[in-house]
Amino acid sequence: MYTTNASRGLPRHRSRHLTERYTRWAMRGVIAVLVIALLWLVLAFHLNGQWMFALLFLVLGGSLGVVFTKRTLMSHRYIFPAIAGLGVFVIFPLLYTIGISFSNYSSTNLLSEERVRDQLMSQTYQAEGNAFDLALYPDSDLVRLYLESQEGQRFVSSPLNVANQENRQIGVQPADAPPAQEALGMRDIIQAREALQGLRLITPDGNELRMAGLRQFAPMVNRYEAREDGALYDRRDDRLLTPDPSIGFFVADDGERIAPGWPVNVGMANYTQIFTDPDIRGPFMQIFVWTFVFAALTVVFTLAVGFVLASLLQWDQLRGKAVYRTLLILPYAVPAFISILIFKGMFNQHFGEINLILDTLFGVRPEWFTDPWMARSMLLIVNTWLGYPYMLLLCMGLIQAIPQDLYEASAVDGGGPITNLFNITLPLILKPLTPLLIAAFAFNFNNFVLIALLTGGSPDILGASTPAGTTDLLVSYTYRIAFQDAGQNFGLAAAIATLIFLLVAGLSLLNLRLSKVKV
What we know:
The relative contact order is 0.08. It is built from 17 helices and 13 strands. It is extended, with a radius of gyration of 36 Å. 55% of the residues lie in helices and 12% in strands. The chain has four domains: 12-78; 113-120 and 228-258, no CATH class; 125-222, D-maltodextrin-binding protein, MBP (Periplasmic binding protein-like II), CATH 2.40.430.10; 277-515, MetI-like (MetI-like fold), CATH 1.10.3720. By secondary structure, the chain is α+β, with helices and mostly antiparallel strands. The strands form two sheets. Strands 2-3-4-5-6-7-8 form a seven-stranded mixed beta barrel. The chain has a five-stranded antiparallel β-sheet with strand order 9-10-11-12-13, with no helix packed on it. The chain has helices spanning 12-47, 51-67, 80-101, 113-121, 186-191, 193-197, 269-276, 278-313, 321-333, 336-346, 353-362, 372-400, 404-412, 417-445, 448-454, 474-483, 490-515, and strands at residues 124-126, 132-139, 142-149, 154-157, 169-174, 200-202, 208-213, 216-222, 224-226, 232-234, 239-244, 249-251, 257-258.
């Protein structure tokens, strides 16, 4: 005999088999729902013209269905979420940024060509003819539109509900005088403005009147007329607009580009502009050099301060090491943005504590935010304060790992603290510390928060055609081009971001190679 499940009267192995079957079907149902949701996203992005996002979710949905339905790929199910997250949040944004760098994507070239054409076709202008003053008169629960021109022409509409958005085109009849009721006030006209803007009033002679102001209707006609070859005829200025796919604009006969435009592929134009346009090349190279200098000096200063303090904390005669260690690591525990904002107030040129102390002791008041060199010095001082606790922790751990026998042997040979420092301590900690120093360099290479909160890139570089400051790093310079420039040149910003990625990727590869060095 075999045991049975008391609750169902079934054999235990059969009950377990049913449970496993239900679990499998439940998992398949969840996977099916996820795949259907992803395919719905694919369709939605495709219908909106976002083919890159549609391709992303198509690949994601397909791989999800394959990995979780084939038993031979069961081992890959555990790493699939990590790989999917890597693809969605790292690889795809990187490829998308690189793709944008080869386009003229900007605030003026943002919409698709179809939407640009639709937007131009929706523009109207006031044709020659009388403008009519508008008044609304109540009629039971409805209202009448009363129009009167300066020449004495009067028209009145039949009673209508202006809130009814379906009444797009209505006729008006001549009138000898305004209705007898009291006209509604401006507040009522403002409330009905959206509905009034959608009305087309047809006069007895066939003219069409549209809302030309808050209290006016006038003969309004479409400004552009579509031609069979894709060009647009400008009725108001009597000129022909031809679409130019090489620049993404409609171009008039006189060469004027009509905004808005649409994104097009411009090849290496953004990259060549960085190095050939003097107004961009000069600020870019200045910021490029400063970015390297800033990152390198930050690493040197933080390492020097951290190493000296770590060496002092290892001094045998020093009492209260735990207290000193806690106090020295406190800047690392405080959020960086709080410390930066505090320093910004302390370095204030007129009311900051630092200038008050310097003025009292030495009679000087440095212009920390207006002088380029003083602003850069301020950045290095603040960043050294923020970064030295990290180096302190690293150096303390590495110094404690050095065998004490080496120092004892050095003492027997007559070596002192300076000899031990340069012949024992530094050589033994530099090799394991090198990859970490490179990582710190890469971090400070893209230290956007410090620049954004402390100086904002100021003072500005004179003569630059893009927003550029003497304290900008490449990452903050890219941000200002993309989001603070009047043109918001996303293509140029993406090109600079791609160059930054190549530099940081090179540093990461170097870091990996150095990490393999055996100490």
